């Protein structure tokens, strides 16, 4: 296997760490954010544009690609990298969360999850073995174990059932893995119960997987509870492997995760919010649909050098959104992903200089300047 991870520096004032994840000779500096290309595309952008920012890894979703166009077709056409013309790394989510959130009807058993497609209502049995088959057919570089995801609030009994099933499925996923190449990550569950998080992490540790994710967060819980789960769960994961917080993507939440030892993040937030007119800047967020920007000649963020900020005004971007022009969605998405890339770059620099707490305080003040 060509997978490797090493910690290069630890922040003196927190649990944050600067690392390097290497797969197929491609080095990913961590902490890192992964843009989400759920169906094999980061919405409105080309693979080259994602690469030009500096991103080395993106996330796609096994559930969606299994349903359409089908993993066997993608494999027949040379794998997901060739299919979407992306020569960087791909992590595929197993689809557990999507089954939880999108399936019209679903029934969980220890064998797997029987669900009806959100596309056409067809029935499917998604098992741990099929989960691995799909991801290996896609040619992913990092594949995720199938997990049982519960929403918030979940009873203790529900959370225990989900974590025990997630552990059993992880063992089945490991046994079903046929290819040496992809790294396999397990997912720690346990809802909002610290002792169950510990039980989940310790049980999965016995499988000696290549990395571990914290799942079951950003499912409706208060932010304070999410941060508490960072503090509880991240120290339970081996120091020598990547720690991945799934689906968490608000800028302040990312910094809170990094402070507590997280290495990888993904979320649809920057791209989805961009398409809805919300842009992140060095002085908080901007809702470009607001009428106050109708004749505003300023760039979205004077400190940003993306195509939008270097070439167009707030007034022009608002005009594009008012007219529902696709170019406006593209410009906003380019800007938000540029913001996230440089945010992670600044976080890594702050770790090397042992001043992440200082950056976090300044960033918190800046992000409070939110445009309603």
UniProtKB/TrEMBL annotation:
<protein>
    <recommendedName>
        <fullName>Queuine tRNA-ribosyltransferase</fullName>
        <ecNumber>2.4.2.29</ecNumber>
    </recommendedName>
</protein>
<dbReference type="GO" id="GO:0008479">
    <property type="term" value="F:tRNA-guanosine(34) queuine transglycosylase activity"/>
</dbReference>
<dbReference type="InterPro" id="IPR004803">
    <property type="entry name" value="TGT"/>
</dbReference>
<dbReference type="GO" id="GO:0005829">
    <property type="term" value="C:cytosol"/>
</dbReference>
<feature type="binding site">
    <location>
        <position position="189"/>
    </location>
    <ligand>
        <name>substrate</name>
    </ligand>
</feature>
<comment type="pathway">
    <text>tRNA modification; tRNA-queuosine biosynthesis.</text>
</comment>
<feature type="binding site">
    <location>
        <position position="306"/>
    </location>
    <ligand>
        <name>Zn(2+)</name>
    </ligand>
</feature>
<feature type="binding site">
    <location>
        <position position="309"/>
    </location>
    <ligand>
        <name>Zn(2+)</name>
    </ligand>
</feature>
<feature type="binding site">
    <location>
        <position position="216"/>
    </location>
    <ligand>
        <name>substrate</name>
    </ligand>
</feature>
<comment type="similarity">
    <text>Belongs to the queuine tRNA-ribosyltransferase family.</text>
</comment>
<feature type="region of interest" description="RNA binding">
    <location>
        <begin position="247"/>
        <end position="253"/>
    </location>
</feature>
<feature type="binding site">
    <location>
        <position position="147"/>
    </location>
    <ligand>
        <name>substrate</name>
    </ligand>
</feature>
<dbReference type="GO" id="GO:0008616">
    <property type="term" value="P:tRNA queuosine(34) biosynthetic process"/>
</dbReference>
<dbReference type="Pfam" id="PF01702">
    <property type="entry name" value="TGT"/>
</dbReference>
<keyword id="KW-0328">Glycosyltransferase</keyword>
<feature type="binding site">
    <location>
        <begin position="93"/>
        <end position="97"/>
    </location>
    <ligand>
        <name>substrate</name>
    </ligand>
</feature>
<keyword id="KW-0862">Zinc</keyword>
<feature type="active site" description="Nucleophile">
    <location>
        <position position="266"/>
    </location>
</feature>
<feature type="domain" description="tRNA-guanine(15) transglycosylase-like">
    <location>
        <begin position="15"/>
        <end position="367"/>
    </location>
</feature>
<keyword id="KW-0479">Metal-binding</keyword>
<feature type="binding site">
    <location>
        <position position="335"/>
    </location>
    <ligand>
        <name>Zn(2+)</name>
    </ligand>
</feature>
<dbReference type="GO" id="GO:0046872">
    <property type="term" value="F:metal ion binding"/>
</dbReference>
<keyword id="KW-0671">Queuosine biosynthesis</keyword>
<dbReference type="InterPro" id="IPR050076">
    <property type="entry name" value="ArchSynthase1/Queuine_TRR"/>
</dbReference>
<keyword id="KW-0808">Transferase</keyword>
<feature type="region of interest" description="RNA binding; important for wobble base 34 recognition">
    <location>
        <begin position="271"/>
        <end position="275"/>
    </location>
</feature>
<keyword id="KW-0819">tRNA processing</keyword>
<dbReference type="InterPro" id="IPR036511">
    <property type="entry name" value="TGT-like_sf"/>
</dbReference>
<feature type="binding site">
    <location>
        <position position="304"/>
    </location>
    <ligand>
        <name>Zn(2+)</name>
    </ligand>
</feature>
<feature type="active site" description="Proton acceptor">
    <location>
        <position position="93"/>
    </location>
</feature>
<dbReference type="InterPro" id="IPR002616">
    <property type="entry name" value="tRNA_ribo_trans-like"/>
</dbReference>
<comment type="function">
    <text>Catalyzes the base-exchange of a guanine (G) residue with the queuine precursor 7-aminomethyl-7-deazaguanine (PreQ1) at position 34 (anticodon wobble position) in tRNAs with GU(N) anticodons (tRNA-Asp, -Asn, -His and -Tyr). Catalysis occurs through a double-displacement mechanism. The nucleophile active site attacks the C1' of nucleotide 34 to detach the guanine base from the RNA, forming a covalent enzyme-RNA intermediate. The proton acceptor active site deprotonates the incoming PreQ1, allowing a nucleophilic attack on the C1' of the ribose to form the product.</text>
</comment>
<comment type="subunit">
    <text>Homodimer. Within each dimer, one monomer is responsible for RNA recognition and catalysis, while the other monomer binds to the replacement base PreQ1.</text>
</comment>
